[in-house]
Amino acid sequence: MDKIEINVSQSPSLNELLNMPIYKKKETKAKIYKEISKILWSLETVPRFKRAKVTYIRYGKKLLDKDNLIGGTKFYTDVFVKWKIIPNDDPKNVVIDYLQEIGDPLLKIIITNEHE
User: Fold this and answer.
1) What is the per-residue pLDDT for 116?
2) Domain containing 83 — which CATH number?
3) How far apart are CA 60 and CA 83, in angstroms?
């Protein structure tokens, strides 16, 4: 089974992104791309999925509203599309689950074949 499991710094919430000036959003997107790319470059092989399941597990000091959680992961999904790990973020090609727990700030991302 091909699988990617990544731990990254906590993602911004949708509210944080919406309240950022444009230049700050671009900086945040670039930072996320750089952080994920560095991890992916370190892998021996980077799997490609025709149909994938992406699970975002957010750990934080408090739970977010579901829409804030989902919106805050968009830049990460975009990186996986850009790297061709997933073909696009169309629901026909990817199932995305969002979970969260109280804990030290962290975003865990797990990508697997959608049928496994």
Assistant:
1) 55
2) 3.30.1330.70
3) 27
10 Å Cβ neighbour count for 45? 6
Q: Is the dihedral of CA 20, 22, 27, 29 positive or negative?
A: positive
8 Å CB contact between 71 and 13: yes
Q: Is the pLDDT of residue 48 over 80?
A: yes
For residue 71, report the phi and psi dihedrals to the nearest 5 degrees: -60, -30
Kindly report, residue by residue over 78-94, the tens digit of the pLDDT.
999 999 999 999 999 99
Q: Which residues pair with 54 in a beta bridge?
A: 96, 111
- Which residue shows structure tokens 């309240």? 19
* CA Rg value for the chain: 14
Confidence of residue 9 (pLDDT cuts 50, 70, 90): confident
Stated length of the chain: 116
Domain count, the chain: 1
Q: Is the pLDDT of residue 6 over 80?
A: yes
101 is in which domain, residue-wise? 3-113
